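User: Fold this; tokens only.

Assistant: Input:
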Amino acid sequence: MSPDAGQAAASPDAAPTAAGQQRVRVTAPRTAPASADPYTVSRELDEQTEVGELFIGSLIRSQLRLALVVTGGFLLILLGVPVLLAFLPVIATLTLFTVPAPWILLGVGVYPLVIICGALYVRSADRNEQRFLDLVDDA
């Protein structure tokens, strides 16, 4: 067996070229990890790190702020009806089918207000949660 044949058998990466010489691939060991685990917000949430707690706390604060704003607006409008009646006593004397106008305002007018405030709250809360999910999915 010739020395060239022994080298070809010993080196599996060796490939003969057209001139009869052999090409050998030389590799070195890796000095750095192949792929570092990328930073993700979802990983921070899963591992319950301080960063994950910060993101969750931010979502909770935004939802609480929204609830306080909607509740404050609702109470402001609801308490505005008696103030309006106090400053405009003419409204208190009006009747509609023998029902006093203040009763109509408080009895019938409050329900659309509750529905509107609830719809605005749900829409804004969904938007807050969607922003949070976009933040978690993007990173």
